[in-house]
Amino acid sequence: MAEIRLGLVGAGVIGQRHIGAIRDCDDIELCAIADPSAVAEKTAHEAGVPLFADTASMLAGAQCDGVIISTPTEHHLRPALSALKAGAHVLIEKPICATVDEAQQIVAGATKTGLHVLVAHQRRYYPQVEKARDLVQGGALGPLVAVSGQWTLRKHESYYDPDWRKKWQAGPVVTNLIHDMDAMRYICGEVESVMAEVGSPILGWEKEDVAALTIRFSSGALGSFILSDQATSPWTWEMALGENISIPRTGENAMRFMGRDGSLEFPNLVLWNHAAPPFDWTQPLTREAFPLTAEDAYTVQMRHFAAVIRGEEPPRIDAADATRSLAATVAVMESARTGQRVSLA
Ligand SMILES: NC(=O)c1ccc[n+]([C@@H]2O[C@H](COP(=O)([O-])OP(=O)(O)OC[C@H]3O[C@@H](n4cnc5c(N)ncnc54)[C@H](O)[C@@H]3O)[C@@H](O)[C@H]2O)c1
Q1: 37: which of 21, 215, 251, 271 is 20 to 30 A away, CA to CA?
Q2: In terms of CATH, what superfamily is 124-295+327-343?
Q3: CA 9 to centroid of ligand 1, rounded, Å
Q4: Taking the model in full, what pTM does it have?
């Protein structure tokens, strides 16, 4: 099988994780890095690849089948359009862009060139997410009634050293809620509307410290979600699974899906049903666990990107799908700003 050659634009925290994932895949080669920072020189030297100051010079100097874009969110658009123009497929970090307008330009670029744009919502590569979707959409809970979720932790102070992380585009709504919003869409179906409040009671910067939202799904189910990057708690997806080596695992669930006939704890996958007729609160509840182990999602995602480039698999989440997750997420900020419910119809 021919080796797939990938260029990396933005070799920061998550860019280095992608370099590690490429290293785990025999048939994928990192062929170049584009990043203007001094730190990237060391990264490129260690990876043994040429370093370019920007995407255009990388695409001119190295032959890339695909390009990974892991620049700060507000700098996703130009590298993505340059890569498509140069004939390379794209794996772009989440959120696809900071605004829906920009994201739609990427959707249009992918359509025009016929190239694939895969968006790095890595939770889609976890068996826990797939199983939850099967249970919810397969009817194990009966009709879905409600969803309750939480993502509350306290980020380390140096996280905010880069100025771009103090802005709203890097706040926990756009940076972190987007993962949960994408997972909720994937598991429960489309989001119809969102109402939200955000606040900055701790740091007082442009980015929010806390958000509280209600979600109406197209199915009629309602959801509520609390989010903060300034609250000490054990309840986040990352802590539940130990996905990120820098965030110690707690094993605590972060979400619950409630249907007329049963409930599901997530991502620990514990299903609750009434044991016997009349299947109501007079009956004991039974508990069934589905313990699942997951491979490193970044490696699975990288392997999938190569398969998409070879034409062997359709993208698990393309630009249009990720734009819908972005629209539902930025609706939180719009609702908080206007005090109105935001419809996504
Ligand atoms: N999938 C996930 O779970 C996950 C986790 C963290 C970050 N991210 C996303 O990854 C992106 C980057 O985040 P990060 O934490 O790695 O940021 P970072 O600040 O650590 O790294 C960004 C890198 O991009 C470089 N850069 C900036 N502008 C550039 C440009 N125009 N061309 C080339 N390089 C440029 C910077 O020099 C820096 O090295 C963001 O969109 C973020 O939301 C995703």
Answers
A1: 21
A2: Dihydrodipicolinate Reductase; domain 2 (3.30.360.10)
A3: 9
A4: 0.95
